[in-house]
Structures are given as C-alpha cells and as structure tokens.
Write a structure and sequence with these properties.
By secondary structure, the chain is an alpha+beta fold. Helix content is 34%, strand content 19%. It has helices at 2-18, 28-41, 44-57, 76-86, 89-114, 178-183, 188-213, 261-272, 296-304, 381-386, and strands spanning 124-127, 132-135, 138-141, 158-160, 163-166, 168-177, 220-221, 224-225, 288-291, 332-335, 353-356, 363-375, 388-401, 407-411. Helix 3 crosses helix 5, helix 4 packs antiparallel against helix 5 and helix 5 (89-114) packs across helix 7. It is elongated.
Length: 415
C-alpha cells in the first residue's frame, strides 16, 4: 500500500511540472473500477470470509456459477436441507449461518459493482491499508536562473503539501424475518439485500461530490450529512476554492457566474495560467465539466453548437454572424444527480459547475473496505428473541482534495 500511495504522490508531482498524461491504459474509469473490484473481493472481511469458505467447503463464494445465490431460482430452504443431509447436526446449523452470510456478501458485492456512478471518470481511487493515510504532493523546486561567469549556482528549495486523510465508517443494519427467508419465492429477499450494496455505492457518489464542494456547511442528503474538506493546509486562508492560493494561483472567480460562454472561457484561461506554491505556471489542461442535471441541456448547447452559441455580434467583430463555436467539443461532460448546491444547502436542482483536468490525481477516494457483511449470531440478541436474521453492512472510506489547483469552481450553486 505504501508503494501505491508513493506512486500517486509522484504522479501528482510530475503532473504539476510537465503535464504528463496520467491516464492508464484504457481509461481512468477502467483503472478505478479495477481498484474497486479489489476492494470488494480481495480486502477486509470479504477476503477473510472468501478464504474461510474455500478452505472449509471448497467453494468460491464470488464465483457466480459455483454459488448462484443471485439467481431467482436459488432456494435457501433447499440449501439448508442439503446441509442437513450432508453434514452432522452439530455442523449444519453453524454452516448454514456461514453460507447465509456468504450469500448476502455475494449479493451486495454484485449489486455494488453493477450500480452506475460518475466519480470514476475523474476521481483517483486508491486502496487504503490503515486508519489514516498520509500524502505529501510535491510542487517541485524553484525555477532555474541565469548563472554568471564563476558565480555560485543559486540554491533552490522544494515545496510540498502536508496532507492526511482519515477513513470513516459508514453502514446500516438490515433484518429479515426467518419465515420470509425460508418461504421467499419471488426473490424479494435478494433484492432487499442487494440494496445494501447499491446504497453504499451511491454513498461514494454523494461523499465525493459533497467533498468536492469543500466548504458547504450543513450539506445533507436524506440522513447523511457531508463533512467539510479535511485537507486544508495551515498556510492557506481559504480552501479548497480560493481567489488567492499560496504562490499566486486561483481556482474560482471573484464572483460566481452562471454556465455561460464567457465564464467558461475565463475558467479555461485561468487554469492554463495556474501557479503552484512557488509561483511557477503549472501544466493544467482542463478537459471535463462536472455539473448536475439542471445544466445538462445548457452545456450541451454550448459545447455542440456549430456556430457561436452566445448570439452574434456585429459583422467583423469576434463572435460575429456565422462565427465558429470555439467551445465545440472542447471538453467531456460528467452529469451527476448528486451535485450539491449552496442554496439550502441540498442536492436539488443544482446550478453548480466545475471545470477540471481529469487526467491528474488531484482528488482522491481512498477505500479501506468497499463493503463487508457481518451477521448477528442467530442464537443471541434480537435474532434469537424475535426470530429474525440481522445483517450489518459496513464500509470504510473517505474522499478529499489533494491539490485543487487542477480544478475551477465556476459556481457553487448560488448564482
């Protein structure tokens, strides 16, 4: 894990210096989905449960053909009867509990992986191995100078950000009546269990976009309240969005503006003139918009019109009649239902928009556990007293900015 974090740090440093394309073979989404699959199946409780089932029962619980628990025709009642026939009475009860937990882990992992989210297109997903991860993105050394004859070479220093990010725990409790499990012929139980995985995947989306906003206090989606950005350096006055970052950079306008051609052009120019901690211009090349559904059609017009999309000026002036559209195809678009707005604050009908360089690892989602399932002992607690089967779904993760100089906040949703 230390090696993976170090590679991320080195990539961010190189990105700030020379604009290297950091996209992996295929796409950034493909690389992120690979890390997510590893967190789902090869880490934490899921890995321990899988290894136990392989060792004791010679069964790979994540092999859908070998363990077809997600199929509608699968019957837990028939499985129990088979275990009763093949195992001793002492083993049967405990074995069924293991199979039941393995089945829920299989269902939730499959549901988690199948949910479509947008953050994989621009966030850098890393697998975490400890409670708190440390990052130190380097901004390199000072710019070289002319050296006179027999003069000493100027000594330069390095600049870096000192960042740490703690993993937090998320989860929910799900219970099902024993009779429903035994008699279910409709697949309802499997669908309900699958929602444990779906919602924890959607939590990632809400978490990422809430942290992207950075400093919107009280931001809530249903019962989930988003935290403020936790990676603010001690020597920055405002963070992550500021008109005066240390070194002379900026990543937001003096006054937020609607998604208009002039404001987009300002964002592109500002990012191409971005400065690092040492005042050296960075190689930031914006290539993706982040918006909510309310702006999706407006942005489609701006990016796809054949002619100047903001109305024609007088003939002969820039943007005159039949002038080309300079924004045509200039960037990709990511539309998320969970884009927050400062009005409320909430996630409804947001007018917030961002322009980012998605190829650079400037925003990280670190995963300690993607999702794991723990089953309550059926011979104790609520399970015993009420004849129910209870599962706890949990995840450990966090997300935040590593270096917001690779992004522009055009509007926080207030305009």
């Amino acid at each position: 894990m230390d090696e993976q974090i170090q590679k991320l740090i080195e990539a961010l440093r190189e990105a700030g210096k020379n604009g290297t394309d950091l996209s992996t073979v295929g796409s950034k989404r493909a690389a992120n989905e690979k890390v997510i699959r590893e967190c789902l199946y090869e880490a934490g409780e899921a890995k321990n449960l899988s290894e136990t089932m392989k060792r004791r029962f010679k069964l790979d619980i994540f092999d859908h053909k070998a363990f077809p628990v997600r199929e509608g025709k699968f019957s837990w009642k028939k499985l129990r009867e088979k275990l009763d026939a093949e195992l001793s009475e002492a083993d049967s009860a405990s074995s069924f509990v293991q199979f039941l937990r393995a089945g829920i882990q299989n269902i939730t992992a499959g549901a988690y992986e199948s949910v479509k989210t947008t953050y994989e297109d621009w966030v850098t997903v890393v697998q975490s191995s400890r409670d708190t991860e440390l990052y130190a993105p380097m901004h390199g050394v000072a710019f070289p100078r002319k050296v006179g004859s027999q003069m000493h070479y100027p000594q330069v220093g390095a600049a870096a950000l000192d960042i740490k990010l703690k993993n937090y725990k998320y989860g929910s409790m799900f219970e099902v009546e024993h009779e429903l499990l035994e008699d279910d012929q409709t697949g309802s139980f499997g669908r309900l269990a699958g929602q444990l995985g779906e919602y924890l995947k959607l939590l990632c989306e809400v978490l990422v976009y809430g942290k992207l906003a950075g400093n919107l206090a009280g931001l809530k989606y249903l019962d989930y309240e988003s935290d403020l950005s936790e990676t603010k350096p001690s020597d920055e006055a405002t963070y992550p969005w500021s008109t005066a970052l240390r070194g002379g950079g900026r990543n937001r306008p003096a006054a937020f503006g609607a998604l208009l051609q002039a404001n987009i052009q300002e964002a592109i120019i500002a990012l191409m003139e971005q400065k690092n901690l040492l005042g050296i211009k960075m190689q930031v090349n914006p290539d993706r918009f982040l918006i909510g559904p309310k702006l999706s059609f407006d942005l489609a017009v701006l990016l796809n019109s054949a002619y100047y999309p903001s109305g024609a000026a007088a003939a002969g002036a820039v943007g005159g009649a039949f002038a080309i559209n300079p924004l045509k195809g200039i960037a990709d678009v990511t539309v998320s239902r969970y884009m927050p707005t400062s009005v409320g604050p909430s996630y409804d009908a947001s007018k917030a928009w961002y322009l980012i360089d998605s190829r650079k690892p400037w925003f990280v989602l670190q995963m300690r556990e993607a999702i794991s399932i723990v089953q309550e002992n059926p011979q104790a607690g609520e399970s015993f007293e009420r004849d129910v089967i209870r599962f706890k779904a949990r995840a450990r993760k966090n997300a935040d900015h590593l270096d917001p100089r690779f992004a522009w906040q055009g509007n926080d949703g207030s305009v």
